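Homework-ish question, so no full write-ups if that breaks the rules, but can someone show me the predicted structure for this set?
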Amino acid sequence: MSLPHILLGLLEEPASGYDIKCEFEQSLSFFWSAALAQIYPALKKLEKDGLVTSWQEPSEKGPARTVYQQTEKGREAFRDWLEEGPQLNTERRAYLAQAYFLAQSRAPDEPRSFYEQLRDDFRARANRLTALEDVWRDDHGPAFPDNLTGQALYEHMTFDLGQRVFRLYVDWAEDCLARIDGAEKD
Amino acid sequence: MSLPHILLGLLEEPASGYDIKCEFEQSLSFFWSAALAQIYPALKKLEKDGLVTSWQEPSEKGPARTVYQQTEKGREAFRDWLEEGPQLNTERRAYLAQAYFLAQSRAPDEPRSFYEQLRDDFRARANRLTALEDVWRDDHGPAFPDNLTGQALYEHMTFDLGQRVFRLYVDWAEDCLARIDGAEKD
DNA sequence: TCGACCATGTAAGATGTTACATGATTGC
DNA sequence: GCAATCATGTAACATCTTACATGGTCGA
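A: Not a homework solution, just the prediction itself:
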């Protein structure tokens, strides 16, 4: 029940399905992922329900863009969702389920290579978020991030969490690798 | 595509649908949640595919228990899943999407109460995991957690991550509350 | 006797994934 | 000419959620 709400939130500003896909990949993937094949039908349904409107715009390359934006009704529906309070218990991280069961693997080397992959991926994501933050810093001057307000403040707080979490994951993966090596010695 | 695999992993030991629901609530909810209405059909499908077998057992209270366990074929399918490497990009945390868009809320007090709820919930979960760990410690003696091997080692590493993450979330939520208060003063 | 817990499920509808299908533009 | 990127979708299938349905045991 959340993707339509997330789309609605993004459509405070006009955007096409393709634009939204890029936003997911670039910045939202830390807490949500969605593919084009899910985004297009969801936008159509929002439009059918009167929560967004759309129009065509020419594109520089490729076919015409269908651009969507919140309607007043959509804005209210979105705010209702925010005011429901935090939607907890939506955790879904398959890699942690795998980590939990790693003792059942056949290949004796699997746990090590698994955690190495985790560590490398998390490190790359932490760096990607840090790079995104550097771009922001350039736009906002030396008082960044203390001078942020409104939308930018809340976006930054979420990004900040992403960086903290990914760094924690990297440290954890390294500690796990050390423990695996330690347990093998016994 | 992950719930069937998680069920298979749990069914290294015999368990009923109800037992599995309890395991999700107790210890797996940190990284995955599943309801009974999802578990029962999933178990039936695994049985139809020959990945688990089932038998009836009398229950002390209530109706007979249908107990399931991995077959050899199920065990192999599970190991294949482990060896696919970490399934990344399965993140789905609705509350972070809400946090990202909090500037769009109507009620000026919404961000504060939202982050307070997050902080309190995370603190409760961190404490719950710590309590679970204390039970383990009693079972494993003073060398815990360094004396863990096999399944228990990997379970503990995942629990350890849960505790670290929840503590980080609590600190983050408190920092966010301070930032919200700071931004309101301006 | 009432609520909490044990224990099973089904049905309908919403949501998400995978594979397929199309076609223009830009840079190498 | 080929791959990447821009840009749109549909169809079939798998998965998940919400609501409904049933009934026994235990303790307050």
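Now go work out the reasoning yourself. Hint: Residues 114 and 140 of chain B are 39 Å apart (CA to CA).
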